[in-house]
Amino acid sequence: MLKIWGRANSVNVKKVMWCVGELGIPHERVDAGLAFGINNTPEFKAKNPNGLVPLIDDDGFILWESNAIVRYLSAKYGSGSLWASDPAVRAMGDKWMDWPTSTLVPEFRKVFHNIVRRPPAERDHAEAAEGIAACSKLFAMVDGALSTQPYLSGQALGMGDIPLGCFAYLWLSMPIERPSMPHLEAWYGKLKERPAYQSGVMTPLS
Ligand SMILES: N[C@@H](CCC(=O)N[C@@H](CS)C(=O)NCC(=O)O)C(=O)O
């Protein structure tokens, strides 16, 4: 059976949990990371030398990097659904998978760490404000993309929606002032109706 290591409140673990939920893949999740530990043990690092979650073992096939895991599971179990059969359609969604990691996360981290993750005494409000301003511009790009199509993956939900769907939950749930983005909010409204999104992504913020 598919085994997943990672704490439920990690944004990168949420990607995998939402994916397995959408595809109905039988699995077992082991809490790991932060207070749960495990990720720095020699046994874990033998599987993922980065010492980071998520990590999967699919009947002996070991894989780390959340987006690679979502692509692997979508290709293996989600052909025609999360894994669009047309390569062009798939690629149009796929481009939104690594964009958060490369472009959004450096700014998003400034917000999330100073609004949620750090103890109140250690929060840097100026840094949070800087991150909110930058993320507002970046999410406006996502809003623009969703003004012409219902999902980032095209006409139907696909793997391309998964990473940003996880970040959108955090962005739209944090107690911060954000510009209104009607297309992003309409897309998020559809995601919130999905049982796999509710159970895999909509976990308590901290
Ligand atoms: N690029 C990696 C990043 C993985 C990552 O940074 N994981 C964080 C949680 S979101 C982690 O393991 N942090 C250490 C910890 O939780 O102890 C991926 O997408 O899987």
Automatic annotation (TrEMBL):
Stated name of the protein: Glutathione S-transferase family protein
SUPFAM superfamilies: GST C-terminal domain-like, Thioredoxin-like
Transmembrane portions of the chain: none
Organism lineage string: Bacteria, Pseudomonadati, Pseudomonadota, Alphaproteobacteria, Hyphomicrobiales
Gene3D superfamilies named among the record's database cross-references: 1.20.1050.10, Glutaredoxin
GST C-terminal domain sequence ranges: 86-206
Family affiliation: Belongs to the GST superfamily.
InterPro entries documented for this protein: Glutathione-S-Trfase_C-like, Glutathione-S-Trfase_C_sf, Glutathione_S-Trfase, Glutathione_S-Trfase_N, GST_C, Thioredoxin-like_sf
